[in-house]
Amino acid sequence: SRPCRTQRAGKRRGFDEIREVRLTSAVVKLAGVDIDVFERGGGKPLLWLHGGNGFFPNQAFVEPFAKRRRLIVPSHPGFGRSALPEWLDSVDDIAYLYLELRDRLGLDTVELLGCSVGGWAAAELASKIPERISKLVLVGPVGVKTGPSDKLDIPDIWALPQDELNKLMFHDPQKMLPDISKLPDEQLAIMLRNRE
Fold first, then answer.
1. Which strands make up the sheet holding 45-49, listed edge to edge?
2. For the whole model, what pTM was predicted?
């Protein structure tokens, strides 16, 4: 089969290993960990760190951002098709993986956007290389304490029923709910793995 643009670009950028190629993503090895990296578009690079639901290329934000930016979305370890090594036990570890990704992609500076747990990872990453982050946007960053010390900033998402959690996560939860009866088995498996 004919290699996709990302595969050719990945070889040009010196990725150590590309084991699987889909239309616009590749699995790359960072610090010995297989990380699925989605890329689309051109222009200024925007590193998007996804939230706890994971990342799917058909999400509504992908096309609008890819029309104006080089959108780069790694799936966090344990999400999507990314591996989850035994040694990884903190969001700080994830930030170090993304430092290597930034270096591998040859990004001198990058705009960084993180949602939920991705916001936490983005804050960790920005604290390590503030001079290399041209813009930082944190959307509901889990793990970033902003309220009083005796109050929870973040609801216990594991104790909430899914419909209550959806109300907290989305302005209009009905627009965000996939029809799981129409999803391919592979996407269902990824959704369940992301939740785990």
1. 21-22, 25-30, 33-41, 70-74, 45-49, 110-115, 133-139
2. 0.71
